[in-house]
Write a structure and sequence with these properties.
Length: 290
């Protein structure tokens, strides 16, 4: 099979994926999204011979628009534009989880400073203010007082982009110094890691320590339901432990897995390529069916 890897920078994650694909004898077409021009009817020539495209774009804007074009061209892409659109936006992400009955932190959205401040005061301190678009824990704020709330809301209101004026406020979940990242392929867990840190943010990008985590039946069920809620695909489902249960606070569509590969005994790239092979086989069967 010929797998197109859509990228803007080749990181360790992409190198692991490319190496596994080549070791199995698959053809790989590396496609730099920064050099492409997308028309309304004909796909760029770079996609001519690919059986499936794997979206590994760093920028959310490139990912969501490029996959939308690929869907319009009828070119199979992982993840789909619909999944990318839901996962890229925290409001849509939260709504999808809640609509599917997946436990997720209490969240409210406001569009003015005054309404946002009322929300924060009702939530109580601490609570969390997040950008609706963003990753790696950037621009997230744990708000511990009214003074802090007023200052941060003022800063966000002054920033130019309209997304900063969508105030996404979430309850602060007391977690045991860690959260759980699960890499999943259409709801089937590939591997899981606990990301631990003394900081309230436990993102690997913020320096959290990753260790292997054994999922129980409840966690597996939540991962499958969260995946279904956003449309399935190659996803990173983020859980937080809440006593004897879990809450799902986010599903990521261009998930990184290098830390997971290092923290567990699972051959993560191999499992991902296994899944890609089944996707191509399924697409081929659909095309050739009478």
């Amino acid at each position: 099979m010929n797998i197109g890897v859509l990228y803007s920078r080749i990181r360790r994650d992409e190198k692991l994926l490319l190496s596994e694909l080549r070791e199995r004898g698959h053809e790989v077409t590396k496609i730099d999204v920064r050099k492409l021009r997308f028309g309304l009817s004909e796909p760029p020539a770079a996609f001519a011979d690919v059986d499936l495209v794997v979206d590994r774009c760093l920028a959310t804007s490139r990912s969501t628009y490029a996959t939308r074009f690929l869907d319009a061209y009828g070119i199979p892409v992982v993840n789909s534009a619909a999944t990318a659109e839901v996962c890229a936006d925290k409001v849509k992400n939260s709504l999808a989880l809640a609509s599917a009955g997946v436990p997720t932190p209490t969240t409210e959205v406001a569009f003015t400073k005054d309404a946002a401040l009322e929300t924060i005061e009702d939530f109580g301190y601490p609570c969390v203010l997040k950008p609706v678009i963003g990753s790696w824990g950037r621009l997230m704020a744990k708000i511990d007082s009214r003074d802090a709330a007023e200052a941060i809301l003022e800063h966000k209101a002054t920033l130019g982009h309209y997304e900063h004026k969508v105030f996404y406020v979430q309850e602060f979940v007391e977690k045991p110094g860690r959260d759980i990242r699960v890499l999943t392929t259409d709801g089937d867990p590939v591997a899981a890691e606990a990301r631990s840190s003394d900081h309230w943010l436990t993102n690997a990008s913020k320096g959290a320590e990753a260790t292997a985590f054994e999922l129980d039946d409840e966690a597996r069920d939540l991962v499958a339901r969260a995946s279904d809620a956003v449309g399935g695909g190659l996803l990173g489902v983020d859980l937080m432990e809440t006593g004897n249960s879990y809450t799902v606070h986010e599903v990521n569509h261009t998930v990184e897995f290098k830390a997971l590969a290092e923290a567990t005994d699972v051959d993560v790239p191999a499992r991902v390529v296994d899944w890609l092979e089944t996707k191509v086989e399924a697409d081929s069967a659909t095309v050739t069916a009478p």
